[in-house]
Amino acid sequence: MKKQIQELLLQSLAILESKEIIPASNELVIKIENSRGPEHGDFASNIAMTLAKTAKTNPRQLAQNIIDQLPDSDVLERVEIAGPGFINFFLKQNAHQATVVEILKNGDQYGDSIVGANTSTLIEFVSANPTGPLHIGHGRGAAYGAAVASLLKKTGFNVSCEYYINDAGRQMDILAVSVWLRYLQHIGAEIPFPENAYQGDYIIDIAKKLHEEHAEKFVLPTENVVPLYKEEDPEIKIDGLIKYCIDNLGEENYRVVFDAGLDSILITIKDDLIGFGVEFNNWFSERSLVENNTVKQCIDKLIKNDWVYEKDGAQWFRSSKLGDEKDRVLIRENGQATYFASDIAYHLSKTERGFEKIIDVWGADHHGYIARVKASMQALELSPEKLEILLVQFATLYRGKEKLQMSTRSGEFITLKELQDEVGKDAARFFYIMRKSDQHLDFDLELAKSESNDNPVYYIQYAHARICSVFRQLPEKGINYQQAEALNDVSSLNEPHEIKLLGTLARYPDVIENAAITYEPHQLAYYLKDLANDFHTYYNANQFIVDDNVIRNARLTLIEATKQVIQNGLSLLGVSAPEVM
């Protein structure tokens, strides 16, 4: 409906331009907003106030000029000027009623848009280090990224979802040495376990399986290991243990231990995400960037273009000259590439694979990383404007008023699977996207499990189930409802609750499009809650199964359309629409 009004305004403005009442413009932006209340119509535009200055005229006079040139329309009842120059649009009643026909005609496709113009889009999200199971912090990024991807697909973008596997670097070496030390302890070695190694019980399970498959193949003399613990600095100590493990196991055996940890955790991550309703088109290995020399090629190009210098035995990127707060290390003094070097190569890979839009979903703690990544793209003569980085704040878990503590390294955390087991996938997915992604989220386990109107996902799903219940009653009452026949006459949908519900249903395509282009799935969550509220209010005030065939059929088509939109919206958020609750 907004697009129809925009088109009417464009035609009016074209006439005013031809009459030289307003200057010609190729950058005209017409905003159509939902009105603040029924007394202000259905939609409003501030176009007269926007153009008044350049037209050198009074906004209210310009608004009148625009109204005078509006073409005749089958959807508009009247148009009024309000306040300093707002133009309010009042729709004809049949314009609302036509929404029911449109929804039931299009079904799952209602709300589809071509605004994305088939733009090739890569969205990378979650990408948690495979050093342990996914926890509740990763869950928010998973739910958010998946919802954004669904919205973009719905609005015409050609979307591919990717998980970047950080299967190289120091954290993975810490994982490997953690597994190896637990393996030694499993076969009776009396050695301490470093406080900054990975502490979770899952490490013990991996170590036991490693022993089952390889017996004592990876045993080294413990008398040579224990002296390494004399180092007081915990970080130097763990690095010493890693070096000893690599040097004495040898590259081949070390890789077996390394992969035992990586593969086991990666399988768990994939299974947990599938259970969460999140699937990826591609799992991209960081290690592959080193093995196929992409990292080296990137650094060589940066050196060639004079973006790299040497200092203290390391190679540095001149990122401060491109907007970063300081220069960044690419190659450490020991010859190892940094995570940043791999990230540069990864973003080169994204552009070389032909994606026109690149979206990264990161934790909010990576905010400082944005400038350096964009700087690296600029230095590689790529297009930094292709990259959009969306930040996701932490989720704090509560059980009622009790805040639950979490520490990843110590192994004291609630996993994503445990969260799902307690509150269910639907509540978890919905609660994670209820707030804007860059705002902190308090996740109340007790509320998520409650069957009450205070629980938004329950409230919305209950609306869907209530509608299904109405339709189950029809055969029992001997009523033969035929949708196609009922759609022939929906003119009786003029009761205030019906008009309100129709107006909310008509907003759905605009909500979807706006939520997609702003990357804000919480807009859809709020919309669905409003829609459920409008339905429950209607349900409590009216009977649907009445004697009058015309009224009954019209009301049934209205609630069937409501059911369809609830189902469509929940599906985009990864939430089910149950028929019975």
Task: Provide a concise account of the structure shown.
This protein is an alpha/beta fold and about 575 residues long. About 50% of the residues lie in helices and about 10% in strands. The strands form four sheets. The protein has a five-stranded parallel beta sheet with strand order 7-6-5-11-12. The protein has a four-stranded antiparallel beta sheet with strand order 1-2-4-3. A three-stranded antiparallel beta sheet has the order 8-9-10.
Topology:
Layout: H1 2-18, E1 32-34, E2 43-45, H2 47-55, H3 59-68, E3 76-82, E4 86-91, H4 93-106, E5 120-124, H5 136-154, E6 158-165, H6 170-186, H7 201-214, H8 222-225, H9 234-275, E7 282-285, H10 286-291, H11 294-304, E8 308-311, E9 314-317, E10 328-331, H12 339-352, E11 357-363, H13 370-379, E12 387-392, E13 395-399, E14 402-403, H14 416-423, H15 425-432, E15 441-444, H16 445-449, H17 456-476, H18 483-486, H19 496-517, H20 522-541, H21 549-572
Parallel strand pairs: 5-6, 5-11, 6-7, 11-12, 13-15
Antiparallel strand pairs: 1-2, 2-4, 3-4, 8-9, 9-10, 13-14
Helix pairs in contact: 1-3, 2-3, 4-19, 4-21, 5-15, 5-19, 6-7, 6-9, 7-9, 11-12, 14-15, 17-20, 17-21, 19-20, 19-21, 20-21
Explain what you see.
The chain is built from 21 helices and 15 strands. It is an alpha/beta fold. The strands form 4 sheets. A 5-stranded parallel sheet has the order 7-6-5-11-12. It has a 4-stranded antiparallel sheet with strand order 1-2-4-3. The protein has a 3-stranded antiparallel sheet with strand order 8-9-10. A hairpin with a 2-residue loop joins strand 8 (308-311) and strand 9 (314-317).
